[in-house]
Design goal:
It contains 3 helices and 21 strands. It has 2 domains: 133 residues, Sandwich (Hypothetical Protein Tm1070, Chain: A); 132 residues, Jelly Rolls (Sandwich). It has 329 residues and is mainly beta. The N terminus is likely disordered. Strands 3, 4, 5, 6, 7, 8, 9, 10, 11 and 12 form a 10-stranded antiparallel β-sheet that branches. The protein has a 5-stranded antiparallel β-sheet with strand order 16-15-18-13-21, with no helix packed on it. A 4-stranded antiparallel β-sheet has the order 17-14-19-20.
Length: 329
Amino acid sequence: MKRLTTWILASVALALAVPALAERQPGGKTRVVPREASTPAKTARVEPKAGADAYSAQVNIVTRVQGTAFFRTAIDITNNTDVEGVIARVQYCYTVSGGFAGCTPPTDITLLSFFNFHTDDIIDYLGSLGVVGPDAQASSFGTLLVTFDGVPSAFGWEGTVTARTYSAYQDNPANGTLAIAYPGSLFFESANTTLVGTIRDTHAVTPTPAAGALRTNLGITNTDLNGTGPVDVDLSFFDVTEGSATNGQRVGNIIAVDGIESGEVRPLSNIWSLAAIPSSVTSVIVFADVVNPTSGFPTIEGYANILSAGTQDGAYFELKCADTDFCGN
C-alpha cells in the first residue's frame, strides 16, 4: 500500500555506486573500504518536478502505551510561511497487539500563516476524531506521516514537524517528565540502499562511565516511496571501540528484519543482546541494508534510541541515508 498521498519525486534511477564499510588497519584505526551493493543497478533518472508545492515529513516514534510508565507522544506541526490555508495531511501507521494494523485515512489540519498546531497526545487526539479506535488509544506504536500541501515551495523548511515522547516521573506530572524529542525526517531523504549510524552500549563497563550504563534500541521504517510493498533489511555492526582488538571489523550477528510493511516501523530492543555483540565492544557503526528486492526500489528510514539503563531516559538519533545514487529515489 502506498501511503504517500502527495510527495516530491526527487529522482528514480542512476546506477548504484558502492557504499563503504570499515576495516581495521595497523594502529587500530578505521579506514574506508568498498562494500557490496545491496540493490540492482538503476538505468534511468527522472528530474524533480518543477514548481512543486507539497512534501512530507515523518515522525518515526509515535506511541501511547502503559509500560514501566504511561508513554505518550506530543506533536507540533508548524507552517513557517506567510501562506494561509496550508494543509497538513496526517496519517498514523501503527502496530497493536504485536500486529501491524495499517495506516489511518488522511486527517487534514488547516494551518494559518505562521501557525502551529500542538497536541500533548496525538493518538488521543486522533481517537477524539474517531480516526483510531480504543485499541490504538490503549496501546499502540507507530509512525506519523505529515504531508504539507499548499506550501509556496518544497525545500523542507516551509512546514516542520517535531515530536516528544514522554512519561511522567513517578507517574506524577508535577514531578516532571522524562522524554526524548526529535524532528520529523524529510520523507524525500529516505534511503533505497543503506542507512548508517553510530550506537553504544556500556552496561558491562566497570566502573560505570560518567555517561551512565547505556543500551541501544533501533527502529526501521518502510517509507515505500515507490509503492513496492514489504521490504527486508539486514543490520550489520562494525566495531569502532577505541583500543579494541576488533576495531574496524564486523562483530556480532547480522539481524534480518523481514517483511516490514508499507508505513510500518519495526522496533528492535537491546541491540547488543539481539546481535550477540561482545560486551567488550562499546561502540559500533550500524548499517541497515535493503535486501535485494524481487522488483522495484523499496525505501527506508531508521533511528537509534540510546537509553540509560537506570533512568530509561533516552536520546534519539536519526540513521542517515548512505545511498550513493541520491536519497529519496
